[in-house]
Structure formats: structure tokens, C-alpha cells
Amino acid sequence: MTIQFNDETFRDDYTFRNSDWAIRRFPFPFHEDSYMYSVNMEQHRGGPAGSVFEKRFDVDEHYISEMRDRALVLAEDPLRCQSLPHMNLAGWDLLELIMVSKSEDYPDLFELHRKGDKWRWVNKPLGMDDTFTFMDDASLPYGPMEYITRQAQGDFAVLDQRENNLWMDAGMVTTQADWSLDFDIGMNFFEWHAPVPLAHEMGVFKRALKFLLNIQQGGPARRLNWTMTVNPLLDTSPENYHKWGVQKTTLTPENIGRKQHLRVELQTFYRLPRSNALVFPIRCYLIALDDLVTMPKWGRRLHRVIRDLPDELATYKGFINNRPLILDYLAQYDDGKPTSPGIWPDPDREPPLEK
Amino acid sequence: MSRFTFPPSIHSRPVYGTLSPRKGSGHLMIADAEGAEALLGLARADAALMASAHVIFIPRDTGNRYVTQLQAAAPAVLHIGASYDASVPRIRRVLADTVMGAQIYLAGTEGLIGQAMNEALNAGIPLAAIQTEHRGSVARRVQCVHCKGITEDVTTDPFTCSHCGLNLFVRDHYSRRLAAFQGVCIDAEDPGNVPPPVELYS
What we know:
The complex is a heterodimer. Helix content of chain A is about 30%, strand content about 20%. Chain A is α+β, with helices and mostly antiparallel strands. In chain A, the strands form two sheets. Chain A has a seven-stranded antiparallel beta sheet. A three-stranded antiparallel beta sheet of chain A has the order 3-4-5, with helices on one face. Chain A is globular, with a radius of gyration of 20 Å. Chain B folds into two domains: about 25-135, Nucleotide-binding domain of ferredoxin-NADP reductase (FNR) module (Rossmann fold, 3-Layer(aba) Sandwich); about 140-195, no CATH class. Chain B is built from four helices and twelve strands; from the N terminus they run βαβαβαβαββββββββ. Chain B has helices spanning about 35-45, 65-70, 85-95, 110-120, and strands spanning about 25-30, 55-60, 75-80, 105-110, 130-135, 140-145, 150-155, 155, 160, 165-175, 180-185, 200. In chain B, a hairpin with a 6-residue loop joins strand 9 and strand 10. In chain B, helix 3 (about 85-95) runs parallel beside helix 4. Chain B is elongated and about 60 Å long. The two termini of chain B are about 15 Å apart. Classes of the chains: A alpha+beta, B alpha/beta. At the A-B interface, helix 5, helix 6 and helix 8 of A face strand 10 and strand 11 of B. Chain A: It comes from Roseinatronobacter alkalisoli. Chain A: This is DUF3445 domain-containing protein. Chain A: InterPro entries: HODM_asu-like (IPR021848). Chain B: InterPro entries: DmmA-like_C, DmmA-like_N.
């Protein structure tokens, strides 16, 4: 299908909206009626047609507006994009991976023409047609990682692999769930995850690291993660928390369905060929509760997950104070009926709400 | 007693050991304030070590309390620094001269250990050749995540950022690159509601 790109904002007047298409393909993260941490990795080798898993780097109706929001964040704070000096090669690897993937997966939107190291990149949605020399920094207006991630939705952490660990040595981070690249850059896998409660004790990070260290070229992996965000604010950064934190106190029973969003990260992991680095794209999808509950299965399930979530997780994810209000809202959409296994909404098979 | 037992914490938070004499092609010792006691401990454990030691000591508020004792330990070189910042050019110069197999000993406050550790790593010293021992003040060096300014010697939680004036709580999350803990606005969700500061670890 041809994507109709939205003209919308993720700040101030928050005109962000999901179309019916975007709602149906939303990556709902709960495969059952409860949630606990796990190393929920699977191979990233496509998925059902039209789903966010189908392409290597999903492009949706929010693409142009998300890239505009990223440019605004970077103008305010260039430290959101950083690369330690030894990561430049990985930046070129990433540029190649995204250009090749997008031009193959979306030939009507992106074109890549290569003659030796002379490359021409056409990005139709953003109106770009650039010619440059592959591996020559001076031929691009930004470093290679910054250049290409200004044109790709989601955050990107580029991880160096050494000493049997992964090191967060480069990244483009403007749509983050409250973590700071500027603070975490240079940290290893255990250090940057240090603030996460419970998961260390469960051995989750040791198992996850072992899995990630063994990811091979051509064998990418993926998982989903989630949190809750008031207003469709992409830039929930610690840097700006003193500005956006107060928005969490604006929920009322009247506005919660429109303001409270489920925030889902589609995390993917690719081995890069020249640098042997691992790139970790973290793609953020937002959905208002009012839209989410149009799928009866999701309304029932989200109520049960949020209700039964341990306090430590609700605190870490930043919605412990709003949980009662969220539960009052969601309870209206839970009639106690069983839900089918798996994340898909199954709108044709799931019974309508009986309340 | 200048030693403090830090409570168990998260993975990014540094842990410190106890300095012990090691064989090495040279010995660089950097300490501030009560950190001198750890160096004097080294000298007692192995007096010969000091004959090839370059010592950089920043007394801070200890005045001359340790200077005479350090002189008596007879290190090859003893430099008394006026402050950490004032000592940085010298530290860099000495690290640049350090040969393969040299040992680095860092002792004193977390701010000194973290910053000197960075200098050593940036100079190419392997982590395995660096020992640390915390002594003295438990004050922390904290970066404001909002304005990026670093406030030295933070002793209370919350505290006021010395750069932007926000009220910050002190996280245990620590960046070795910045040699600093992270400070985050405490009243973002309820502006003006700032709990009274309490001493760290109290």
C-alpha cells in the first residue's frame, strides 16, 4: 500500500494520531494476561504482511513528522547524538544496512544506486537526493550514523563488542523512555541497565548478553518492551524531565483515554559486517488508550497486566501514581472473558465487550 | 577512622578495594585528603616501593596533617597539589611518561578516584594496573542530567545544582566517563515540593 504520511506533532499541541491502519498493526506487547521480565528474543525475519515486523526497518504514517521532531530535539540538544571516535566504521556499516534495507523493502520510497564507492541515495518522503562517497566522511553533511538516523524512525544504540561485553559507544537517542545517551555512553551492558529493578536478580541481563554476543551477520533478532507515557511525547528524556514530568499530573477521568498512551519499543539487533559492532534500533510506537480499547482483546488484557504488575515495575516505568486512574479507565473494558493467546488483536474472533 | 563501608548498590556504581603493593616498572600514586592514609599504609607494607614512587597528593582540608608523614615515607617524587584541577596537567604529563608495567594507586574521595581513573585509562593504562581505595569524605561528584553541569562534593540528597539551580536527587547510577553520579530534578511532577535535604547514607 502507499503510505499516507501524517502532518502531526509530538509536543506542544500534540496533534499525533493513529489511523485505523496504524491501530490494527500496533505492536501490542503482551502475549498473555500478565507481564514479567524475560529474554523474549526471537529472530527478526519478517512477519505477517502489513505488520510492523514485516520489514527490516518499518516505515509508517508517522515517518515524516517523527523525523521533523528528531531535528527539533537535536537543534535543542546536539548531545543526543554522539559517537566515540572508534565507532565511525560502525556508523558506515549502519548507513549501508539502512539504505540497502529501505531501498529493497520500500522501492517506491527509497532508492540506492551504487557505482563502486560513488553512492546516490534518494529519500522521496523527505525530498532528498544525495550523492556521496562511501566511507568518506567529508562527502556527507553529518557523520554517517547521524546522517542516516536523521532519516530512520526510532532510536539507535551502536554497541561495540569487546571483552565479552557490549559497550554503548555511539547512538542517536531522541525518542527514549527516560534514559540519557550522554550519561550512559561508554558504559557496558550491565552498567547501562544498572537502574532496572528486579531483572538483574532474575539473571535476565546475563542471559540477554549471552544471546546478543552471539548474534551473527544476517541473523537479526527482535523483542518488544513497553512503558506508559502521558501525551504522545516522543522525547521523554531525562534531560527534559523537569519540563515534561509535570504533564504526568494532568490526567483526569475525562481526558485519560486521549492523553494516556501505551508506549511500545520494537527493539531489533543486527550484527554489522566491518566493525563487528551490534546495532540496536529501538523503535517507539505510541497508542492512546481510547484507540487501544477498540480492540476488545487488548482492552481486557491491558487491564489485567497493569492491575497485576509488581509495584517496583510500575514505579520504574513511571506510572505508579497514575495507576489507579488508569485502572479505573481500563476496568470498563474488561468483562472478565478469556483472551486468546498471542499479541494479535484477533478482532474477528475475539468476542465483543459485554458490559 | 577514614574508611566507610558503602551499602550494596547497582552495577554501575563503583566499588573500591584496599591498596596493596605490587611489583611494577614504576609506581604512580594519586591521593586527596584522608587518601594519604592509604598511601602511608602502602609505605608501611613495603617501604622499598616508595623509592620508585611518584606521589601526587592534594591535601584539601587536611592542611599539613599528612604532608610531613608522606615526606617521611621518602617517595622518589612528592608533589603537593593545590587542588585536583590544578594537578591535572601534571597528572597527564606523568601518565604520558608511564612505561609498560607501571602500577597506579588512587586513594581518597570518589571524585578524585573517578577523575584520576579516567586520566589513567585515557593514557592507555590497563584497568588491571589500577588500584583504588576510598578514604575520607563520602561526598559525591554529581552531574545534573538537565544542564550537564557537575557539582563537586555533594553531601546531601536532594541538593541544589550549582549551575542551573534545579533541586536534584542523587541517583546511584554512575558514569565512569564523566566520573560522576547522576542528579535528576526531584520536584518535576510537583514543582516546589522539595523534601528537606538529608546527609547521604544517613
